[in-house]
Amino acid sequence: MVAAPASLDKLCINSIRMLAVDAVNKSKSGHPGLPMGCAPMGYTLWDKFLNHNPKNPKWFNRDRFVLSAGHGCMLLYALLHLTGYESVTIEDIKQFRQWGARTPGHPETFETPGVEVTAGPLGAGISNAVGLAIAESHLAAKFNKPDFSLVDHFTYVIMGDGCNQEGVASEACSLAGHLKLGKLIALYDDNHITIDGKTDVSFTEDVLKRYESYGWHVQHVSDGNTDVDAIAKAIQQAKEVTDKPSIIKITTTIGYGSPNKSDTAGVHGAPLGEEEAELTRQALGWSYGPFEVPQEAYDQLRQAIDKGAKSEAVWNELLESYRSKYPDESIEFERMLRGELPSNWDQSLPSYTPEDKGLATRKHSQICLGALGPNLPELIGGSADLTHSNYTDIQGETGSFQAESPEKRYLHFGVREHAMAAILNGIAYHGSGLIPYGGTFLVFADYMRGSMRLSALSELGVIYVLTHDSIGVGEDGPTHQPIETIPSLRAMPNMLVFRPGDGNETSGAYKLAIQNRTRPSALCLSRQGMPNQENSSIEKVSFGGYVLEDCEGTPELILIGTGSELYLCVDAAKELTKQGRKVRVVSMPCVELFEEQSSSYKEEVLPSDVRKRIVVEAAETFGWHKYIGLDGDSITMSGFGASAPGGTCMEKFGFTLENVLNTANNLLT
Amino acid sequence: MVAAPASLDKLCINSIRMLAVDAVNKSKSGHPGLPMGCAPMGYTLWDKFLNHNPKNPKWFNRDRFVLSAGHGCMLLYALLHLTGYESVTIEDIKQFRQWGARTPGHPETFETPGVEVTAGPLGAGISNAVGLAIAESHLAAKFNKPDFSLVDHFTYVIMGDGCNQEGVASEACSLAGHLKLGKLIALYDDNHITIDGKTDVSFTEDVLKRYESYGWHVQHVSDGNTDVDAIAKAIQQAKEVTDKPSIIKITTTIGYGSPNKSDTAGVHGAPLGEEEAELTRQALGWSYGPFEVPQEAYDQLRQAIDKGAKSEAVWNELLESYRSKYPDESIEFERMLRGELPSNWDQSLPSYTPEDKGLATRKHSQICLGALGPNLPELIGGSADLTHSNYTDIQGETGSFQAESPEKRYLHFGVREHAMAAILNGIAYHGSGLIPYGGTFLVFADYMRGSMRLSALSELGVIYVLTHDSIGVGEDGPTHQPIETIPSLRAMPNMLVFRPGDGNETSGAYKLAIQNRTRPSALCLSRQGMPNQENSSIEKVSFGGYVLEDCEGTPELILIGTGSELYLCVDAAKELTKQGRKVRVVSMPCVELFEEQSSSYKEEVLPSDVRKRIVVEAAETFGWHKYIGLDGDSITMSGFGASAPGGTCMEKFGFTLENVLNTANNLLT
After folding, report:
1. CB B428 within 8 A of CB B137
2. Which residue in A15, A13, A53 sits closest to A231, CA to CA?
C-alpha cells in the first residue's frame, strides 16, 4: 500500500467532508458537523490502520469500527463508499435519510452491510465496543495457538462529548479498564460543542483523567483538523499498548471548513444550506461539484479493496492450516461462525413431573444454564453483581473472564446493568456465534432498557435473565418489586418475554431463547418456588400460550395464568370443577409467541364466544385486555408493592385461591 | 452539646451495629453488613455535624442526609431512632421489613418521616443529592440577603461501591463538579465487597481520581472502622471547601465486628444468624440483649433533640426578622414552602381556535412554559442537551443555573438523561415548592426510566417534557422513534401520561401537570404540526378522555385518537358522516385520568354496547384493548419505524385518512 502525500490526504479528507455536506444538504436533514470535524481521524484510521475487506464486510477477522456518535453517520457512509463497499454507492449517499435507503439517519446494522453496530442513542456504541473487544479477547484465548493468531483484530471507536457524558459509557469504560482490553482503541472527538452550545455549559470535567482513573492509556492530539501524522502516531502508539484500552482525545473543530458555522452548535444537526456549502467549498479550496469525488481520492482509499482481499486471503490460508493442525478446534470455530448450534445442545435440558420438587424458576434457570453449559461452548454471560441471587453461574465451572483468564466465559459486570446490556449487544454484534446472556433483578431492566431496545431493534439474540419478577420479591419492597416491568417489556417490538410457570416451561423458555438468534429474550423468573404442572412441557412453550387444563365441551370460564400465579389458576379450576363449573386453564408463558400462532390455533385456545376470562398475573394489568376484552376480569396489580415477606405480599395483594374463586364466581353469576 | 469521649463514641457506634444485627436477624432478611461497617461514619456525621430537628423532620433548613446505599437502611433507621425521631421507635425496628411497618426493606420517603429520598436502586440517592444541593443553592441565591442566610444547609450522602459503579451517579457527579456544588458532601463506604465477592472481580478503578477529574475535592480516611476523629476531621474539611463538592473515601470493613462473616459478601445481604450475632456481641464487647440500647448511647445521641429544637428556633427567629425586613420575598418563600401555587399561575396559559395556526405540540409546550414562567417562580428545569429541539427554554429569560449564577432556573443537564431525572427527583424531594421539569426525546425516556419510576413511586410531581413522540420524528430513524415508549409509560403506576392533540390540550396538560404535585407527568409531544380542534379545551383534558365530535343518537362507531393522530379521527368522522355513518370521536389525552372518572362518565363516553371502536395512535397497540376490546380495531404500530421524512413515515405506516376510512368501513360492514 502506498502512503498518501499530504496533499492527497487533504483531498481524501475533504472528499469525506463534502460528501457529508452535500448529502445533508440534499436531504435537508442531518448532522454535517461531526463528519466535517472527524474526517481527518476517520480517514487516518481507515486509510492507514483499519484491517478490513470492503468486498466482504463480514470477513471474520476484520477490525471492528464503531461510530458511537451515530448522528455523524455520513462520516461512516462516506468511508464505506470511498473505500469501496458495495452497500453504499454514490446513489445511496444521494438518498441519505430517505425511505428505503441504505443510508438511514443513524447507522443501523440491519440496513447497511459494513455497519458494525446500530448507534444513535449516545453512549451505546462505545459500550457495544467493549463487548466486541471482550468477544475478540475471549475467542482469541479460546482458539488461538502459539503458532496461530486466528482471532486477532482491533476494535476502534469514534466517540464524542455526548458519549462521554452518558452513564452507560462510564460504566462500560470502567469495566474495560478493569479487564485491560488492550485492543480497544477509542478516538474521542473533542470539539467543545453540544446541542445546547459550548460544552462549558455542562461538561467541564477532565475526560482523560477520568479514563486514566479507569486504567486506560490516554493521549491527546491537539490539532485534529489537519495533523494527520499526529493522529497516525497516536493510533500506532495505542496499538502498541496491549495491556490497557486506549483513548485518544483529538481536538477538532465541529463543521471544520464552514466559514460561518464551524465551531457552533448550528452545524451539529442542521444542513449548511447551499450558500454556506459554496463558501465551504471556497474555504477548503474544493473545486468539485456536489457528490463529486476526485478520482485520486477514490484511488487512494480504494486501495483498501486489494489490501482487504489480501488480508482475508492470508487469513484464509491461516485457517486452512489451522484446520489440519487443530481439526477439533477448527470444527468448533467454524460451526460457531456459521451460527449453527451443536446437534446435542439441548439434550440435557431437564423436564419435570408434579412429583419433582417445586422450585423457584430462577433456580430452574440455573439448572438450565448448568445443563446447557457443557454442550454449548458459545454460551457466555454473567450478572450485574447479583450472581448468587440471579443464579446465573454455570454450575460446574469456576473462574471468570478477567485480564488474566479471558478464556473463561463468566462475566462479572459489576453493578452496571446498562453497560451489561450494551456489552451483551456488543458480543452479539461480533457475529461469531457467541450467545450472550446477562442477569439482574427484573425491576432493574429499567436501568438497561435503552440497550434492551437496541437488542430488539438490531435483532440480537441476547438473553436477559431477570429474576425476582414480582411482589414475590418480598422484603426488599417496592423499589425492588416489578409491577409494570413485564408489560413494559411486552410492549417492545421483537422482544420475547417469557414468564415460565414451572420447570418445564423454564426449560422451554431457554430452548426458545437459545434458538432465537435474531430476537432477544427476557426471561422473567421468580424468587419463590412453585409446583410443577402435570400438563406443561418444554415443547408447548413454543406456542406461547396453550391449554394446560381443560373441561369437557365448551368452557364457561377461561383462567389465564403465567409464572408464579399459574398454579393458582390450576387450583382454582379444580375447585370450580368440583362446583360443577366448566373451566379451562390457559398457560401463557410468552404472549409474543402466542400472537404468532395461526388464527385457528388462537381461536382454539381462546374461543371468541367464551368471553368470561380472568387473567392472573402479579404484574400491572396493562396489555391483558387483548385477551380478557371488555367482559373479562383480572387479578393483577394496579399500584406499587410493599415491603413484607413475599408470601404476605402475595396474600395482601389478592393472589390467593380464595380471591381467584371469588372473582370467578362473580364473573360467572 | 457535649462531645463524647472515645468510649462513648464506641458505645453509640456499637448500638447502631447491634440494632442492625438484631433487626435483620429478627426479620430473617436484610443487609447487616453496611450498617456494621458504616456505623462510625454514620454516628460521626449525625452526632457531630448533622443540623436537624428530630421532632420536626420537615424543618426546612435542616441538613439533608441521603443513604444512597439504601439496602443498608438499618443504619438510617438506627440513627433516626437513636437521635429521637418518633417515626422509628424500637417497636418499628423490631418490625423491620414487615407488612405495614415504617421500616421497609429500603428507605421510602412516603413510609418514614426523616427519610429524605427513596433509595434502593443504586446510584439514585447520590444523584438525588445533586438535585437537593441544586435546590439549596438556587433558593439560597434567590432568597438569601447579605444579612440573612435563610437557606443554608448541607447535603450529606453515604454511598457505596455499587453507587459508584452505576452510570447515573457518574453523570450526576460530573454535573455536580461542573456546577461546583460546595455544600454537597459524599462519604464513600469503601469496603471492597460487592455481592459477587471482592470488588476486584469487576471494579478496580481509582475512584477518587475519577472524582478529581469531575472537579470534586477528595479525601481518604484509611481507618473508617474506629477512627472517629479522622472521619470528623475530614467532614470538617469538606465543609470548609465551598467551591467544590466533596467526597471522602472511608475505608471500612463490611460487617465489622462479626468474627466469621466480616469482610465477606456473605454479610452483605443475609442475617448473621443467632450464633454469629452472639460471637459478634463477644467480639464487640457488647453485653446488651437484642434491641437493647444502653441509656448512655441514647443520652448522647438524643442531645440532637435539644440541639435541633434550638437550631430551628434560631432559624424561626431569623425568618421572623426576614419577614419584616423583606416582606415580599418572605411571602413568596413561605408560599413556596407551603406548596401553594400563586393565585394567578395559570392565567396566561393560552387557548386556541381552529383559526389559530396549527403548531407542533412541542411548540405549544414552549409557549406554555413561556406563559407559566413569569407567574410561577418555582418552575425550574431544563433539558438533557436538547434545548432547541425540546423547546424547554422559558422564553424571555436568559442565562442558566451555573456556579456563578445559581439564581437562574434553567438547567443544562448535558447529555445525561438518567441524571436529569434523578436530579429532578432530588429537587422535588427538597420539599421547598420547586416544580422541576426536564426535557429529552421521548425515546430516551428509556435511559431515565429507573428514575422516572422513582418519581412515580415516591409521589414526586416532576414534569417530563418528552418531545419527538412518534415516527413523526422522521429522518433520525428507528433509534429515535418511540414505538413502545408511550405504552410502557402508561403501564407505570402513578405516572400521568399526556399526549395532547392540539394547543388547548397542551395547555390543559400543563395545567394538570403543574397541579399534580404528588404525581409525575410525562408530556408526550410531537415534532410536527397539527391543526387546532373546534371542541377541545383546557378543561376537558382533566377528564382524560372526552367526546370531541359526536353524531346524533347512539354512534355506530367510535374513533379514539390522541396527539398528532387526533385530527385524522376528526377528518375521518366528517367523511364517514357524509357517507351516512354515525360516528363519535373521543380524544384521549390522558388514559390515567380517564380511568379515574366515574363509571357513569366513562359509560357515557364509551357506551358498553358500542363495540365498534378504532384507536388511532402512532405507537404500539399495547394497552389499547382496554377500550377497543375483542371487537374493535386499531391503527397503531406493531414494529419499529424507519428513517425517512416524518410525513413519509406517517403515510407508509398507515396514518392516513384513507386507511382510517378503510378500517372503519371494514369494521362497519
Report:
1. no
2. A13
3-state secondary structure at position A193: strand
Which residues of B fall within a CB distance of 8 Å from A416? Answer: 165-167, 202
Indicate yes or no: CB of A487 within 8 angstroms of CB of B400.
no
Is B553 found in the same domain as B491? no
Q: Which residues of B are annotated as a binding site for substrate?
A: 31, 268, 362, 389, 468, 476, 480, 527
Whether the CB-CB separation of B79 and B42 falls below 8 Å is answered with: yes
Q: Which of A202, A212, A491 sits opposite B622 (nearest CB)?
A: A491
| A417 flagged as catalytic | yes
pLDDT band at A6; cut points 50, 70, 90: confident
A656 Cβ contact list (under 8 Å, min separation 6): A568, A650
Selecting among A417, A505, A565, A617, the annotated active-site residue is A417
The H helix count followed by the E strand count for chain A is: 25, 18
* Residue B614, in any domain of the structure: yes
Q: Does the residue B10 lie in any domain?
A: yes
| Residue list for the binding site of A for substrate | 31, 268, 362, 389, 468, 476, 480, 527
| Residues A24 and A111 grouped into a single domain | yes
A385 vs B contacts (CB less than 8 Å): 162, 165, 194-196, 202
Q: What is the mean pLDDT of residues B211-221?
A: 98
Using the beta-carbon criterion (under 8 Å), do B167 and A165 form an inter-chain contact? no
User: Does B354 reside within a domain?
Assistant: no
At B496-521, the pLDDT tens digits run 999 999 999 999 999 999 999 999 99
**% of chain B surpassing 90 pLDDT:** 98
Please indicate, yes or no, whether residues A264 and A388 belong to a single structural domain of this protein. no
Name the grid cell of A640: 406499587
Q: What is the DSSP letter of A266?
A: G
Nearest residue of B to residue A104, measured between CA atoms: B643
Q: Are residues A64 and A209 in the same domain?
A: yes
Same structural domain, A516 and A555: no
Q: Do A385 and B194 touch (CB under 8 A)?
A: yes
For residue B384, give the chain A residue with the closest CA.
A196
DSSP B154-213: -EEEEE-HHHHHSHHHHHHHHHHHHTT-TTEEEEEEE-SEETTEEGGGT--S-HHHHHHH
CA atoms of A20 and A94, how far apart (whole Å): 10
Domain end position, chosen among B242, B276, B308: B308
Q: Show the cell assigned to A461.
A: 439474540
What is the tens place of the pLDDT at every residue in A413-455?
999 999 999 999 999 999 999 999 999 999 999 999 999 999 9
How many angstroms separate the first and last alpha carbons of chain A?
84
Closest CA to B25 of B94, B124, B87: B94
Distance separating alpha carbons of residues B634 and B625, to the nearest angstrom: 9
Q: Are residues A411 and A455 in the same domain?
A: yes
A551, A583 in Cβ contact below 8 A? yes
Q: Please name the member of A212, A386, A643 whose beta carbon is closest to the beta carbon of B97.
A: A643
The answer to whether residues A288 and A397 belong to one domain is no
Q: Cα–Cα distance between A175 and A167 in angstroms, integer?
A: 13
In this structure, the answer to whether residues B434 and B506 fall within a common structural domain is: yes
Looking at beta carbons, which residues of chain A come within 8 Å of B121? Answer: 443-444, 446-447, 479
Handedness of CA A386, A392, A398, A403 (dihedral sign): negative
Cα separation, B384 vs B416, in Å, equals: 6
Distance from CA of B199 to the nearest CA of A (A): 8
Q: Which domain holds residue A492?
A: 359-530
pTM > 0.90: yes or no: yes
- Which of A453, A459, A608 should we substitute to test contact with B (largest number of B Cβ atoms within 10 Å)? A453
DSSP H/E element including B593: helix B591-595
- Would you state the pLDDT for residue B1? 44
B350 falls within a domain: no
